[in-house]
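As the next step, I wrote out a protein sequence along with its fold in C-alpha cell form, included below for the reader:
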Amino acid sequence: MQLANNSVVWFRQDLRIHDHPALTQACDYALEHNANVTAIYFVTPKQWTQHDVAAIQIDFIERHVGLLNQSLAAIGIELTVVNLSCFGDILPWLQAYCAEHHIGQIFAANEPEFNERQRDQKLISAGLPLRLIEQDCVLAAGSVNNLSGQMYKVFTPFSKAWKKIAASQSIMPLGIATFRQPIPLPVLCQFKCDEFYPHRVSSEQWAAGEDCARKLLKQFIESDITDYQQYRDFPAIAGTSKLSPYLAIGVLSARQCVAAILFHYPDALVNEASPAKTWLNELIWREFYRHLLVAFPKLSRSQSFNELGQYIQWRNDNDEFQAWCQGLTGYPIVDAAMRQLNQTGWMHNRLRMVVASFLTKHLLIDWRWGEQYFRQQLIDGDLAANNGGWQWSAGTGCDAQPYFRVFNPMTQSSKFDPDASFIKQFVPEVAGWSLKHIHEPHLKAQQGNLMADLFSERAKLQADYPAPIVEHSFARKRAIEVLGALKRG
C-alpha cells in the first residue's frame, strides 16, 4: 500500500514562486518523505461574482496563472487548474484528489476574508490535511495588539506598534523554492467563466509576470520613492508605484516590498525622516485593513464598523448613482476619475477618496453601493483595502474620516490637477473651458443658463456636459445633518 506522503500546494491570492512559505514548506515536506509535490488552482466564477470580482482582474489572474505554470514546471512541479463553481465544490474535489494522489499534506496561505476562512475551517473539520501558512501580511493578523491584547482601532498607534515589532525582526523574503529538475510544461485548462462573465475585459495594458513586478518594485524604490510624498496626490503625474494590481493577487508579497525598502533605507522603520516613510505607511495601511478583517469578520459582510452607521438615512437615488458611475455628475474632477476607472480598471488613489466622499456625502448614497461598483471594475480589487477606504470616506469605519469633513471637489480639482491636464484627458467635453470654469463648474452652468436664449450654439455646447448634479454648499450642509447619526449614542 502506497503511503500518503505526497504534498500539494494550493495557490490562491499568491501567484508567485518567490517568497512563498507554503510552496517552500510543501517542497520540504515532499523531500523529507522522498515524495512528490503538485500544485492546484481553483477557478470559482460563481463565487467570484458573489464577491464582485472584476472581469479585468480575472483576466489578469488568468495570465498570471499561465506564467505560474511555467515557473513551477521549471522547478519540477505540475500545476493543475480546476474549474469548479464555488467554494462549496472544493471539499469533494480535494477529498477525491488526496485519495488518488496519496496526499499527506495540503499547504496553503491563510486568507483574511470571512468566506475564505469559513471555507478553510470546513475543509479542516472534514478531515482534510490542510496546513495554513501565515504569509498574507508581513506581520500576521492578531500579532499587533494594544496593551489590552486587542486589535488597534486607530491607524497611528497600530503603525507605531507595527514598526516596533517589524524592526525587531529580520524582514527577509524567501528565495525560490527548490524541488527537482524541470518537467515538460503542462497544458492547463482554460478558465471557464463565460456563464458568469460573458464579457471578458483585457488586462493587456498591464504587464504581466513575477519578474516584471519585481523589476517595477526595484525601479520604484531606486528611482521614484523619494518623490512619492511630493507627487503621489497629482493624478496627471506618474507619482505612484502602480504595484497594487500585483499585490492584490500576490504576484508580489508585502514582505518583498518592505524588504526592498529596508535594503535601500535600512532605518526606514525607526527614522521618521526617512524618504521611504510615506510609501512604507501605505504598506502598513494595507496591513491594518487586513488585520481588521480578521479581528472584525463583520467587515467582510457589508456591515459598518461603527454600529451607528445603521441609523444613517441614505438617499440612494439610483439616477444619481448611475450618473456617478458613468462620470456624468457635472463635476469634472469626479467624472474624470470615474471615467479613468471605467476605461482602465484603475483609479488614482487621491481620486478614490474624492469620488467616494462625493458619493457618500454629496449624494448621500450608501457606501456599499460604491464599494461594490469599485470592486466590479478594479484590476487591483481587494476587499480589505476597498472596504477600508470606503468606510473611511463615509465616516462609518475604523479610524474613519469624520462625518463632518466633506471633500470640496472644486478645491481638490484646483489643488491636485491645477492645469486640468488629467481632467481634459478623460472629460474632453470641457477642454475648451477656462481653468476657472473647469474647477468651478457651477459658474459655467450659471453662465450657460443665463445665455441660453441669446446664444443657442453656446447652450448646445453646454448641453454636451451636464450641469453639477448638486450644489456643494447645500450638499455639505445636508451631509453633516444626515451623517450626524454617527455621533448619536
Notes: The two ends are 66 Å apart (CA to CA).
